Amino acid sequence: MTSQSVLISGAGVAGPTLAYWLARHGFQPTVVERSQDLRSSGNPVDVRGPAIPVAEEMGVMPRLRAAATQATAMSVVDATGRQVARIKMPAARGGDKPEVELPRGDLANALYETARDDAEFLFDDTIVTLRQDADGVDVTFGRAAPRRFDLVIGADGLHSTVRRLEFGPENDFVTHVGLYVATLPLDGPADPPHDLVLYNTPGKLVALHPGRGRAWAAFIFRSPAIPGFDHRDTDQHKRIVAEAYAGAGWRVPELIEQVRKAEDLYFDSVSSVRLTTWARGRIALLGDAASCMSLLGDGSTLAMVGARTLARALGEESGHAAAFRRYEAEHRILVAPKQRNVGRAAGLLVPKTRLGITTRNLTARVLLGR
């Protein structure tokens, strides 16, 4: 399968990675992205395990390591700021190919710059309609003229437009797992400068991350689905976070003030995306659009690996149907354990009770602490 046109929705992590590998298999990729440009920062994500050889083969690994965050340890503190446990971060433990933690925007920019010479990128635009037949997919855009493509791939995240248009409404596939998360950049560097600092109260977590010269804050809290929640309403997000953390100790009051003033606040439900199939006809899903876990930073690693798996299958199989089946069969093996472990990860990060917090801290200090 060569010289076919492929439209990719989303220029985050999965989209540019897929465009790079498709071009190397002889395809003509076009990437459409709703945002006007790529962010230069973002909350930290990990490139680890099977994503490391993908990055190395793309030639971006030196750049990713240069952009790595300054976090070398994780500290747990109580309401007075007293350290109760400290754990060395995996990326600081060395090894032949240690994982890399870096701002998501830096990862996305590195992947985009590696792919842009071999792909067309359409920023500040989005897909409006998809109509497929036996020979291709007719696409209309919000701004660009209508076009026809051989294949369409939705790599457009948790709130995927491609999934909604082709597979059905979001509520059919996206399940709130009982947590919400907010992240934002802070004014100035972290203190201490190399520690990810965690502070818990029952059902709530505040984390301060040193980033790379500029600190980041994260708020993760337990809550049932919030009626009327709109993932694009920033003013609503600020109210929700402030109400959830009202009365909390440590540095929380000053951090909430920064939430209220923030111009770059991310807030969303922690959700799981599950579909019985990731492809319909000539349209398929990739990354969080197909199988979001949205916790513990595994999304970027899985997106990169899934993109290469999909491109390789399309390049080697005799037709798109066989390629989509192969991609899904291979990649679900990596995705399934991560989805099963979301509840366990949530229990470690955000214990429900004071006893749970105490038990988690004691376990960390005894088994992992230094």
From TrEMBL:
GO molecular function: FAD binding
Annotated signal sequence range: none
Taxonomic superkingdom: Bacteria
Any one Pfam family match given in the protein's UniProt record, by short name: FAD_binding_3
Domain FAD-binding: 5-322
SUPFAM superfamilies: FAD/NAD(P)-binding domain
Protein name as it appears in the record: 2-polyprenyl-6-methoxyphenol hydroxylase
